[in-house]
Amino acid sequence: MAGIDLSKYGAKSKETSQKSKEKTADPKNLSDILNTEISFLEKKFGPKEKEGFYSELGLLLSTGVDIKTAFEIIEEDIPNKKHKVLLEQIKNDIISGKRIYEAVGSHEKIFSKYEIQSIMIGEETGKLPEVLKELGSFYESSIKLKRQIIGVLTYPIVVISMAILIVYFMLSFVVPIFSDIFTQTGGELPEITQFLIRMSNKSGVIFYTLFGIIFALIIVHKTQKTKAWYRRFTSSLFLKIPVFNKLIQKIYLARFCQSMKLLSGAKVMINEALDLVKNMIEYYPMEHALEAVKHEVINEGKLLNESLAKHKIFPKKLVALIKLSEEVNAPEIIFEKLYKQYSAEIEHQQAVVGKLIEPIFIILLGLFVGFILVAMYLPMFEMSTGTF
Prior knowledge:
It contains 17 helices and no strands. The protein is mostly helical. Helix 3 (47-62) packs across helix 4, helix 8 (128-185) packs across helix 9 and helix 13 packs antiparallel against helix 14.
């Protein structure tokens, strides 16, 4: 681990001390300004920023750069002023005598226990650069996995939205025009056409109700997404959707394996590792399972593979390989192998799902539009044959 070079701060420390004395009478001193800035920053220093921060800091420290210079180099490339303020405060805390994990841990609303614990272990074991690089890799893969989930769900949502708008337009504007024409003829309309006209007459109520339900669901999601009942319900719902359920499960299994690889490589105790991973996964079925696993491992002395085997969320192959890792005492290698395997499977399955979903939704959209066209043109065919 690169040491902290304080030799360059002799002159600056006196200057900083003098400035701090001058500002003590001012209610808006530097500390207040920093706290104000960071309060606005907490929701913005996300995975993307953390990935860059940890990767660059780990790389710089591994080359022998001192911590102050490393932070200054990183700060130069950051355009966001609030991010710079955050990193400068962490740097100043380290220079003043705090350990790196303590300086980072003072911003607990920005940095998770998982990160703080990993940095602490890196400092204690002398493997801080390696741990920081792993944290950068963790957030890089987290961003990738999140994009994969969004990529899987975006196409169906866009197609369904377009289908709703097209059907709304046809029922509200196209069908009434045909309805007026058919009414003037005075003939008896086919049952399918009568049904469509009845839907057209109530299209306003139908679609306003539909939009109201969608809006209500968005509000519920925004206000209840952190509640246990909502997370339990939504996760169980997604697990019942064919094809998607396996893909989502593999995405979180990959995240579990990557987290365990990082913590086992840093020699974290199994109970602490399970607790940290549980807090990082953000997937209710796995969180619930890991809580039970942690209890059995700590209180009943069971092996990790024995406890994981009781929960369906963990496949038999994963449990078997973890059992092997416990027998040969090589958890880091096995978890890395599992992570790479799941990542490859996710990419392949995502491509398959994308190719499968596209024609299905095109067919469904075609059926909607085709039903409307048949219902509208059927009376016209009857008129041309004289049966209307």
